[in-house]
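ugh ok so i messed up the first submission bc i forgot one of the chains. this is the corrected input, ALL of the components this time, i swear. 983 residues overall. if the numbers dont match what u have on ur side tell me asap before i send this to the collaborators (the ones from the other lab, u know who)
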Amino acid sequence: MTLSRRTLIGAGATAALSAVLPRRAYGAAKLRIGLLLPYSGTYAGLGNNITDGMKLAAAEHGGKLGGREVEFVPVDDESDPSKAPANVNKLVFGEKVDVLTGPVHSGVAMAMMQIVKSEKLLTIVTNAGAQAVTGALCVPHVFRTSFSNWQTSYPAADVMLKAGHKKAVLMFWNYAVGIESMAAFKEGYAKGGGTIVKEIAVPFPSAEFQANLSDIAALKPDAVFVFFAGAGAAKFVKDYADAGLRDRIPLYGSGFLTEGVLAAQGAAAEGIKTTLHYADSLDNPANRKFREAFKKATGRNADVYAVQGYDAVNALAQALDKVKGDTGALKELVAAMESVRMESPRGAFRFSKAHNPIQDIYLRQVKGGQEVVLGVAMKDADDPATGCKMPS
Amino acid sequence: MTLSLFALQLLNGVEYGLLLFLVASGLTLVFGVLGVLNFAHGSFYMLGAYLAYWLSARFGSLWIAIAVGVPLMVAVGLLVEKLAIARLYARDHLSQVLLTYGLVLLFNELQSYAFGNDVQSVPTPAPLSIRIPLGEAQTWPAYRVFTAVACLVLAAAMRQVILRTRFGMRVRAGASNAEMVSALGIDIRRLFAALFAAGTALAALAGMLAAPLTTVYPGMGEGVLILSFVVVVIGGIGSIKGAFLGALLVGLSDVFGKVLLPGFASAIVYAVMAAVLVLRPRGLLG
Amino acid sequence: MKLRVLLAAGALALLAPAFSGDRFWLQFLGKAMITCIFAASLDLLVGYAGLVSLAHAAFFGISAYLLAGLSNQLALVNPLLTLPICLLAAAVAALVIGWLSLRATGVYFIMVTLAFTQMLYYFFNDAPGLGGSDGLYVNDRPRLGPLDFADRPTAYAGIWIALVVTYLLLTRVLRAPFGRVLVGIRSNEQRMRSLGFPTPRYKLVAFVIAGALAGLAGYLDATLYGFVNPAQVGWRQSGLLLMTVLLGGKGTLYGPMIGALLLTFIEHYGEQVTTHWNAIVGAFVIAVVLLMPRGIAGLLRGARG
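and heres the new structure output, hopefully the right one now
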């Protein structure tokens, strides 16, 4: 455990020094930020983008947050919930990070919450949209800079109803994210008087959609609302177009249907409308600056995942400045995080009472191979945070 | 379910099954004749898909990519056989599984290092981009028809090779009794090497053909691998005909399972395999 | 004799974290020891009975989920109650699955066990109320009087005891006539049958014992982490366990345990060296297969001369 020994010696020296010298910032100890993200397998692209977004933000702060030099400690969680407890253990107790961030996969997030809830460690969720994180399992020292599954799907119901689609078919992967997305959509759709003709649950991560597409073609609904992401989403959109459905039955989904796979989908994605808390083409100064800097630093185009990482470090920077880098003063740090206000590439950013972002959800449409923002589907969307009892 | 929907689902199931057959055929050959459980079979499928992506981007045509890619994968197969597999013929199945599992890990890292982790698309060749209307509700992409036909042609070609050529005769002989074949003076090692390379190429070709449909992404070989094993076992190890029947059965039960028994759709394929093995413990034609 | 000394020394060394109280090592080695139990139970099947089962993760999962259910729904925290119940459930599941699977042989047997593990995976993943792909928490971990297993050192001690008991139990079973018959079946089943042994029954009993021990591992895992997830049940987990057993050296009991410890450490440190740590593991696996045909335990055996 070479790293741990080094940290121990460093911490020991710091402790000795700070006993003699007047106390300024939280020692000269590095700020160790743990990254619980996938760096291998299907979700590696997301893990890389979140990491690079975080690194960009850190660089923009001169590599220091709250006066402390930033050190990123990545652990490849492989998006595997069965290895999650061990990986969280590695970061929290082995590497003894000061702040924990991640993960991509909701199952991993659940494992993480189990350990983190009793540890006084500031945790920032940079992707996983599981409702429970800022819902039934909410804890003061856990924040989320990404989204909740409710936020990205609920607004779509209103959009579809306004467009006159009163009868819809739902199709989704039968796992936590898909189920929560559909639940949120159904809530909004039923409220507005829409009818769900059929709910098609596809086993995750199966990408064989032909059977269900034929079914949809026969049912002839007004529109289809789906949840798929990554390679499966790429295939779904292509299959949907190949089956001739794209021009007959309008396709809607939360933004993950196209995020990161728009290039792979090509012409098949034209005309698809999605709702998400971000769009590459958002025209605001923060986004323009961010996208340019990201492209310069990595050679890749930024996406929503990069933004989530970027915002996490920026929020942390604001909060740490207020507490002068003292990650041990958890109560003050939490209060500082709660008061964070910033102009994120996604728009105005602040945390809700349950520590989920309050953010605008945009309606986007694919036009000419780009996500064009048609407008705001829901302003200041705040996750209902069902079951969250935050101690005051 | 209306007749037209039924016919459509039948079509879906058959087309899915045919592509599965192409992947599984290589696996059943290698296992049936060489006795090698090749866990890296899914990796060859993935490598084929990535080659299709890389070469078609370079040469601007999927056909050229396949023409270049297949011989390349044959070479890869020969290399893997010589360096790793050949040492395992004397060892037990489990050592083969373990070694090929190590290969899977290596190939995954190779893919990540060489091609990155993004989802990539392979454009469908222009003449096959048209969509064929099926009734008034749905269309079918011509490319799917092409892959289905290609798989059928390859199946027929395989049958001819196995039944009518010298090589096929040796393969069949080697499947029944490798010792005898070698005692008869036929170089069993060359035969095995050729067969393994053929199996590799078949898996890779399946990946190349499927690439425009499935897109190309990390870990794409895993699901295919497990399904290939299911197909091979249902059909009976070593039987190409069995793999053909098994693949169709898997394809159809998957499709109809999704439509008729959506609650059990995920487990259907495995339930079918368990049922087949209860009735015929050596597979359909094993 | 030397081997026994080595193993005893290793076991005592494993006790160290319980005294140092280091929270990382308690969880890390605790998990490693659970994997040792899991691997040893599979070795009974693979190394001694000659049965390659991919269903092992299923028994692990059934026991783990049952603990979660007993704790969450029935507020049962007494391990003297919950442990036997979970072990029994795993054993019964092994009885059923074993009886159905053993009708096939060779690769077909492996695939039938795979089919069952997959069906169970989808059951845990899809059935409502079981937490789906997010998994479940074990709300109240086992407690017995003053012993609270949510407390790390206590859980660690419990796991250590379970490991020692498992190893001693298995060695006893294998040294007994039952174990010898098993080995006989592995080398030549026909002969054992002609000698009058009802071989299917022996294989089934081995399957059940192994399944129950896998259930023990699952119970301990759910106790240590307080979290169960369908990802723990499924062919990937079973496959990984099989790899561990083979790497360590099947048919030795201690070999798979060493394999489990070694793999855990390699994965941990490999990651600190490079992001392409999977390649390191892959190369290591290939090297072991090509150079150490009897697994890592083969090295130790060789050293004994």
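quick check: Chain B has a mean pLDDT of 89. that seems consistent at least. The longest strand of chain B covers residues 131-134.
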